[in-house]
Design a protein that fits this description.
The protein is of the alpha/beta class. The protein has ten helices and eight strands. The strands form two sheets. The protein has a six-stranded parallel beta sheet with strand order 5-4-1-6-7-8, sandwiched between helices. Strand 6, helix 10 and strand 7 form a beta-alpha-beta unit. The protein is elongated, with a radius of gyration of 19 Å.
Length: 239
């Protein structure tokens, strides 16, 4: 075992290993491309309505759990809500489906590994530490990214919410990963970008929780969650 590393490290996927990009870029593209289909609606007004609808959707815990397992359906709901708030009840048939699919393409195209992330995983893999991937989301979407970027070989255990029917921050998700790795919480680190799902969830399970602030935005005091450590890239784990 390399000096300073724990027996096991559990990683989140999106915005930890893979950079999902700025979603606002895709939202603005949608507004520029489709606002002309909505009478009297400017791209700026459409964007504001979409952001309000998006935030309202993902701030609801129940909707968020269901939505991350079917992103296309979630996006249909968001577009429907935005158009309703704009009074665009006479939008042409198929418009919502077209926008949801176009947004999905734009978001998928934006995904790429963070610089140095794959090399860091390779070195960690060679250090003797057990590695696990613990990610929320659908089976199809998450395994698609795992295969696309050749990630499976880095991990001793891969746990996708859609496969198991439960995900972070549920205690069950962390306990299952610990059992699969045959390690105790005290000898394990969790690395992730989501303060509630990754950090608070891991801490409740007794796991040392490392928040990755890949874009250097800093902690939001309003979240009320204090990570055990803050890093800007996976490579810092090897320091």
């Amino acid at each position: 075992m390399a000096k300073g590393l724990p027996t096991a490290i559990i990683f989140d996927l999106d915005d930890t290993i893979l950079d999902s990009g700025d979603p606002d870029v895709a939202w603005r593209r949608i507004c520029a491309e489709f606002a002309g289909n909505l009478d009297g609606t400017t791209p700026a007004r459409f964007f504001d309505a979409l952001i309000d609808a998006r935030d309202g959707f993902w701030d609801d815990d129940r909707q968020a759990r269901e939505g991350r397992l079917d992103l296309l359906a979630a996006r249909r709901t968001i577009f429907t809500s935005a158009l309703s708030s704009l009074g665009a009840t006479d939008a042409e048939p198929g418009l919502i489906e077209a926008m949801a699919k176009r947004y999905t393409v734009l978001r998928d195209e934006a995904v790429t590994p963070f610089r140095g992330a794959l090399g860091a995983l390779e070195r960690l893999r060679g250090s003797g530490a057990k590695l696990a991937l613990l990610t929320n989301g659908s089976t199809e979407k998450q395994w698609g990214k795992i295969r696309q970027f050749g990630l499976a070989g880095f991990f001793d255990h891969i746990q996708v919410e859609g496969d198991f029917g439960f995900g972070k921050p549920a205690m069950r998700a962390f306990r299952y990963a610990l059992a699969a790795l045959e390690v105790r919480p005290a000898e394990t680190w969790m690395v992730g970008d989501n303060l509630l799902a990754d950090i608070e969830g891991a801490q409740r399970a007794g796991i040392f929780a490392i928040w990755i602030d890949a874009h250097g935005n800093g902690l939001d005091p309003g979240e009320g969650v204090t990570p055990d450590r803050v890093i800007n890239s996976i490579g810092e784990l090897l320091a």
